[in-house]
Amino acid sequence: MTSSGGSCECSWSDSSFLSGSCGNTGGLAFFMSLVDLVIRSQCSVTDPCRRATGRRPFPAGPVYPEELDFVVVGGGVAGSVVASRLSEVSGWTVGLLEAGPEEPSATSVPAFASAAMGTELDWRYLTEPQSNACLATGGICAWPRGKMLGGTGAMTGMMYSRGHRRLYDSWRDSGVVGWGYDDVLPYFKKSERNMDTDLVEPEYHGFDGPVAVQRFAHRPEMAESIVQAGVELGYRTGDLNGHNQTGFSIAQVMVDEGLRMSTSRAYLRPAHNRPNLFVKINSRVTGLVLNKLNNRVQGVKYVDQYGEHMVRARKEVILSAGVVGSAHLLLVSGIGPAEELLRAGVTVFQDLPVGRNLQHHVSVSIAATVNASEEAHYLTMDAVSEFLATRTGPLASTGLTQTTGFLTTSYSVDGVPDAQVYFDGLAPNCDKIPVDPDGPAYRKYDGARAYVWARPTYLLTRSKGYIALRTGNPLDDPIIQPNYFQDPRDVLAMVDSIRIVLALMSTRALSRWDMQPDTTPYPECAQHEYNSNAYWACVVVTDTKPENHHSGTCKMGPADDPETVVDPELRVLGVANLRVMDASVFPTGPNCNPIAPIMMVAEKGSDMIKQTWRAYVHENNVPPYTKSRTSR
């Protein structure tokens, strides 16, 4: 369902999805439909005059019906950055193809940060059955992936974190030249506009980039107690993106004027008037157009409501379709493991290990009850009105989820954090809509103990999986085989993480709230003594919570590494004028939320393209390009 962007002078198609986020029938569905309608009627939220409508056609070329200098595939976290940065060059034409719609207005409200998961704005991928994970759901794990401008970055918790410097130095030391921490720090800074200058170590941060970074305007009081609980256990607090990543903090998030600062909002909307930038939404790329005679990419094929199309890229194609999407497009186009491609009936263009090296973070939820009924904010129209009027109140944050800690388990090496803990709860959500005075919202929270959850997450997993073709049809989902907990050490490290969380719950700082772990045994694990290592190991493999932190399927590395798909310039080996820029190029996944590292890759990759074509201009004595006046 779509609607206009309110009564403003500009119109665009704004997806409505909140109505089903609390169930499809009854009072909850009606209430959420009303909330959705109210949000979509606010021009200050919808930003209608800077939105992509898809009405501008791609320019025609002398040979092909559609022809541009650069074609960017995927308008998610990375693609929005790349398209914006390349279109700073006024002499270049840049096309961006996104399979989903514009980023809906409701996703920008922090309280609804993840409400789009499971809707039509989500690719709704499922893994292959796992023997050691997600056993409560038959071994099948859900993999939410954003299908809209902004991508998965438009439906997650907005947390800004970068990872430890040693991780990037390990990339450099493995032969990925130019990707050590000192090499990538300038690109973290370039994207960042940190607005909490008194909270950060300035030498590690940027203050005039496109992406606003700051704390939420609202947080439950318990969040501060969680940070103090971490201090009580010996962890530091402060800037976790500075000289030391380890510790607890109220996280900085990507938010501006109370609304989510997705890369679509930060990069694409300010560039909406550039005559050389063309953004097509609801346009799914189905494959690359490759020329075997010169081993180069000529363009891409895509489908939209009008049918099938081919657009030529005069200079380069950049894949920013994500860990699943970029790998899948390469595979269906004939770039991947030759034997696998032949089995799927795909002609081999280049034999490369595409889809291998798949990495992911995993977590588990540990429930607890607290005496915090006054902290359990209701989702009411008064709360909605407060947010729309002042950008404050409970809708202006994700509740306890903005609190995080980077931990070192007994498996940590050299003090590098290998686990992270989030807390969930005390946010206005579906079970806090008091549409019925005798309903669950009143009964559960009015004078009763409230539930909260700690979510320990292991960050440096050893288990690796793969993405492969199920068929040669580009519209069929690929095989996603993460091989969770294939290495039993990952289970042991998760149990260690749980022990840290249980210690955190028993600190003096949290005794104020009388935080008590829920000791109700998981039925599937009742054969083990509660709180034994065997019990928690069972919980880990039974109630696995995959995070949205996938990486690695188009691994960046030196050309002589048999696992390499792209070189340190992000160029696909053996295929001219084709690059990948997203989390799939990470040799090893960062030990953090991946949005900031993905933006860094996109910023650095965009500069690489500019440098490449500057060199081409110089070497071939052609007129140089000029930068547009709208560039940063």
Give your account of this protein's structure:
The chain has 632 residues and is of the alpha+beta class. It is 25% helix and 18% strand. Strands 9, 18, 19, 20, 21, 22, 25 and 26 form an eight-stranded antiparallel beta sheet that branches. Strands 3, 4, 12, 13, 14, 15 and 27 form a seven-stranded mixed beta sheet that branches. The chain is globular, with a radius of gyration of 24 Å. The N terminus and C terminus are likely disordered. One of its GO terms (molecular function) is flavin adenine dinucleotide binding. Belongs to the GMC oxidoreductase family. This is Glucose dehydrogenase.
Assign a percent range to the helix content: 25-40%
What Rg do the Cα atoms give?
A: 24 Å
How does the major sheet shape up? 8 strands, antiparallel
- Name the structural class: alpha+beta
Binding site for FAD: 152, 285
Organism: Aphis gossypii
Pfam family, one: GMC_oxred_N
Cofactor: FAD
